[in-house]
Automatic annotation (TrEMBL):
Record protein name field: Quinone oxidoreductase
Transmembrane segments: none
Endpoints of the signal sequence: none
SUPFAM superfamilies: GroES-like, NAD(P)-binding Rossmann-fold domains
Domain called Enoyl reductase (ER): residue spans: 12-323
Gene Ontology annotations for the cellular component aspect, listed alphabetically: cytosol
Keywords: NADP, Oxidoreductase
Lineage: Bacteria, Pseudomonadati, Pseudomonadota, Alphaproteobacteria, Hyphomicrobiales
Length: 325
């Protein structure tokens, strides 16, 4: 069966994206075939497309989607045709109408959660789960600085951090995005378009700085983030929106107060099936309890994938973005 799928034959700007007809094939013994109804768009897709992450070419794109199981392989017993499932991670290729995927790497979509909600929350929610719970466990009353607070990950981080009881300080670009962040768990939001971020953080923390900064911006915010940290603070670099940060200087970390630097990835934290399922369960539990709220603020037909990439890359979006096959 031939279906629509996004492909790239070279890495570069959004104009390298192509929507082509590709053959899906039949499930292998441990695979399932998913009819995808909603696809999550993430900055990781831009990294793959642009060349920040290397890919064998030609390649599909996308690492998150939800839909309905159409066929299962001969060894698959826990999932049946007709089940609703979602997934995040793995090799790029989710930007398609149908997809083959390993059965043990999908999550059964809970009753009461729509396919669109699942595709909008799974990857971003698991990212927040590992950042706040495992990479650096955030505690009640702890001052936390989070970049891109009005983005898909940022909004969920604000909500999750509020649930923990942390003091969530966000950074966003412009008053509208700051207002959105404040409605989603942040006690303060710094408008980086007109405020001195370091000075504002120091003022908010009575000169002490924050315990941890979660930075997905990369090169442009690296120095800024370092100078927002309290002694023995932790710099968590989990994204490179503006490019990779410069090499970390050990003497500088010492000089600024025995700081720590880490560069984690979701893939490491959900590498085992046990960790994957535990992380997804934590996300869907908070969603069911009303602690997490999904902001799906953009939807694009799959044919408009280039526009979706451009809008996300240029900071035009807030919350979660979906592609609809």
């Amino acid at each position: 069966m031939k279906v629509k799928a996004v492909r790239i034959h070279a890495q570069g700007a959004a104009d390298v994206l192509r929507v082509e007809l590709v053959e899906t094939g039949s499930p292998g013994p441990d695979e399932i075939l998913i009819r995808q109804t909603a696809i999550g768009l993430n900055f990781q897709d831009i990294y793959h497309r642009s060349g920040w992450y290397s890919l064998p070419l030609p390649s599909g794109l996308g690492t998150e989607a939800a839909g309905v199981v159409e066929q299962v392989g001969s060894n698959v017993t826990e999932i049946r045709p007709g089940d609703r499932v979602c997934y995040a991670g793995g090799a790029p290729g989710s930007d398609a109408a149908y997809r083959l995927f390993p059965a043990d790497r999908v999550i059964v979509t809970p009753a009461g959660v729509t396919d669109e909600e699942a595709a909008a929350v799974l990857m971003k929610g698991m990212t927040v789960e590992y950042l706040l719970n495992r990479c650096y466990p955030v505690e009640r009353g702890m001052p936390v600085l989070f970049h891109a607070a009005a983005g898909g990950v940022g909004l969920l981080a604000g909500q999750w951090g509020r649930h923990i009881g942390a003091r969530m300080i966000g950074i966003a670009n412009g008053p509208e995005k700051c207002a959105l962040a404040l409605r989603n768990g942040y006690s303060e939001c710094i408008d980086r378009s007109k405020e001195d971020v370091v000075g504002r953080v120091r003022a908010l923390t009575k000169g002490e700085g924050v315990a941890v900064v979660y930075d997905c911006v990369g090169k442009d915010s690296f120095e800024q983030s370092l100078h927002c940290l309290a002694p023995r603070g932790v710099f968590v670099s989990f994204g490179t929106i503006t490019g990779p940060p410069p090499p970390v200087s050990a003497p500088l970390l010492q000089k600024l107060g025995s700081l720590y630097f880490t560069r984690p990835t979701l893939a490491t934290y959900i590498a085992s099936v046990t960790d994957l399922r535990a992380s997804a369960a934590a996300v869907f539990d908070l969603l069911a309890r009303g602690i997490l709220e999904i902001n799906i603020n953009q939807r694009y037909p799959l044919d408009e994938v280039a526009l979706a990439h451009n809008d996300l890359e240029r900071g035009r979006n807030t919350g979660s973005t979906l592609l609809i096959p």
